[in-house]
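Weekly sync, protein design subgroup
Attendees: M.S., D.O., the rotation student, P.L. (late)

Item 1: inverse folding check
M.S. brought a backbone from last month's batch and wanted to see whether the design step gives back something sensible before we order anything. D.O. pointed out we never logged the input encoding, so this time it goes straight into the notes. Structure tokens as presented (385 positions):
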């Protein structure tokens, strides 16, 4: 199982070997809730089977579903899921993607993969990283307006001060002792030869430099997500001083991240993120309104589809919870929308298909809740020209 990244999306979109099978569902991280996950998965596989049997004989359908059936019976997999999973399958292609967010159940057979949930996961403007750091180690979390999950740090990236500085630690005999209980204000007391605070400060600065460089290179730059610092109040100024990460927000969380639950950390992070989130959505709505008034935007789905096919769209706003069943058909150098039934193997979500066209043409997708959309059609396009 992989985590979705922006680099994976073009690879997924490039697969056009019909039929393309897309399955999405929420999962559970712990027992006993996760016992129901394989049952739901098998039900969704049954939906894929029903759709395939419309166009394919039983033996061929069985071949298309072999890897799904194997996954359904893989107890090791179901014991180590995250909050959601996407399974994408086509000829010579099978990808299992873990999601750190809940996702609506969906099973679709079409001429290309259904990617709107992945677009939403990658492009939603409510996503962020939280960097929890102390003078000993650091943790990284990814969250959105609904919750937060810890990120597994890639092998080779130092997560403790000993790993980061090694032999360069200025005082190898320094010991750190906790004091003050387990509350949010818990700090550290340093005992060394004569209480060498200068050496502690020097180590802290060098450790923070290693951490900010690693996080920027391996997480902030690839994802483009805002970064919120969570640390004791006395560490914020130093970290902000040594970091040149342009995605690090000036406002942080002044708390020891190890002393709060994930739910508490998510609440504190969203208090930092929500004003910027609302401002971003308001600005996008205003930008669309101005573009439409000047003939450089549209919320008419047929017009937007045509503009997407010609690479005219700079930014596309899509409602996360709206589906328009149909397919895009190109005829005589123009594109039209043919309505259909989502259960048919040649039919997908038109909003999803238009979004994929925009991505292929180098445009930007923003998936947002319908109540935040500036239109009622589920789509709004801002043109390049």
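Designed sequence read out in the meeting:
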């Amino acid at each position: 199982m992989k985590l979705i990244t922006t680099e994976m999306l073009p690879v997924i979109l490039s697969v056009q070997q019909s039929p393309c099978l897309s399955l999405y569902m929420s999962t559970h991280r712990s027992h006993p809730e996760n016992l129901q996950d394989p049952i739901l998965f098998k039900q969704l596989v049954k939906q894929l089977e029903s759709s395939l049997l419309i166009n394919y004989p039983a033996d061929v359908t069985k071949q298309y579903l072999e890897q799904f059936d194997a996954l359904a019976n893989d107890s090791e997999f179901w014991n180590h899921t995250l909050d959601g999973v996407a399974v994408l399958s086509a000829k010579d292609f099978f990808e299992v993607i873990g999601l750190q967010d809940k996702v609506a159940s969906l099973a679709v057979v079409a001429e290309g993969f259904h990617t709107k949930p992945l677009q939403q996961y990658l492009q939603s403007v409510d996503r962020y990283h939280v960097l929890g750091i102390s003078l000993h180690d650091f943790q990284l979390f990814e969250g959105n307006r609904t919750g937060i999950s810890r990120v597994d740090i890639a092998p080779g990236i130092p997560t403790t001060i000993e790993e980061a500085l090694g032999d360069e630690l200025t005082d190898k005999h320094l010991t750190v002792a906790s004091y003050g209980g387990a509350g949010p204000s818990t700090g550290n007391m340093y005992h060394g030869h004569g209480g060498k605070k200068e050496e502690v400060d020097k180590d802290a600065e060098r450790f923070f430099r290693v951490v900010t460089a690693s996080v920027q290179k391996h997480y902030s730059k690839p994802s483009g997500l805002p970064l919120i610092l969570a640390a004791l109040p006395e560490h914020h100024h130093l970290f902000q001083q040594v970091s040149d990460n342009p995605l690090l927000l000036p406002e942080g969380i002044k708390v020891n991240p190890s002393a709060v639950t994930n739910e508490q950390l998510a609440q504190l992070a969203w208090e930092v993120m929500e004003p910027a989130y609302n401002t971003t959505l308001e600005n996008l709505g205003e930008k669309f309104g101005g573009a439409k008034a000047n003939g450089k935007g549209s919320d008419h789905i047929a017009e937007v589809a045509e503009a997407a096919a010609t690479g005219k769209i700079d930014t596309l706003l899509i409602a996360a919870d709206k589906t328009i069943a149909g397919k895009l058909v190109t005829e005589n150098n123009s594109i039209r929308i043919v309505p259909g039934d989502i259960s048919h193997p040649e039919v997908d979500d038109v909003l999803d298909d238009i979004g994929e066209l925009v991505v292929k043409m180098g445009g930007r997708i923003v998936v947002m809740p319908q109540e935040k959309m500036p239109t009622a059609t589920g789509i709004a396009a801002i043109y390049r020209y």
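Discussion: The domain at 128-276 is CATH 3.30.420.60 (Nucleotidyltransferase; domain 5). Residues 173-194 have pLDDT under 50 and may be disordered.
Action: P.L. to compare against the previous round before Friday.
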